[in-house]
Amino acid sequence: MAGEKGSYRSVYSAIWDDPEFQAFDPVTQAVFFCLRTSKDCNFPCIFPHYHSTLYERMPNASRRGIDAGIHALIDAKWIRYERPILWIVKGLKNDPSHVPGNSKQISGIMNILRSLPKLKIVADFATYYSIPYTIDIPIDTGIDTGIDTGIEPPPKQGTGTGTGTGTGTGTGGEPTAARVSDDDYIRQVKDHYNAMIDDPAQTQEWRNFYNGAMEIDALLFAACTWLVENPRRRRSDLKKFYGNWLRKEFQERARKQDARAG
Fold this sequence. Notes:
Blueprint (H helix, E strand, L loop, with lengths): L18 H5 L2 H11 L9 E3 L2 H7 L5 H13 L3 E4 L2 E4 L14 H12 L5 H9 L53 H17 L5 H7 L5 H14 L8 H24 L1
Antiparallel strand pairs: 1-3, 2-3
Helix pairs in contact: 2-4, 7-9, 9-10
């Protein structure tokens, strides 16, 4: 908003003399600085990221150029991306305020890592910076973690490879749970999740409602993981399932808070 300076970000000026950085084209350089100085970027430089935010903040650059810049930074290992988490690999290391081994900084970083989805990229960050944080659930959840910018919608009934009759009286032509194989169902769950995460507008209602009280991205990932790991307990209305998952988590947190207060 006009009049607000936002969060302070510091970067060593020597970056302009770095041969690798000089080799990037101007749009890629701009993408890097947009990510590094973004209000979404936290102290350890590992945070939820959506491509649409770059499109909005870089209106004079083409989407194709921005996408190419992201891929160039990934190829050069300047950033890593495992949807929905982006890590500026040496962002923390090159932050002038970073003090390796500082207990307060380590404690703050661990709190941030706990708020993120339990992904391999988070575990790799902790290993890279020797942060005593471990992932306590299986990392390989089967969720697509590519950087595709164009997400195709889930296939409609009749287009898959199943051998069912496909003539049931389901709702609005959606695949009937009993007639879709586990593999097809899991693929549909992944497609739905990836499309939802790539378009923040689809989750804005939840963000507005809970107003920062919960880490929405991490909870949605946990809900999707449950769906993938429990294909026999499938849900037909995925958005309703996600909404109920958030509501139950919020109620449980409120219950625990009331118990502590009492």
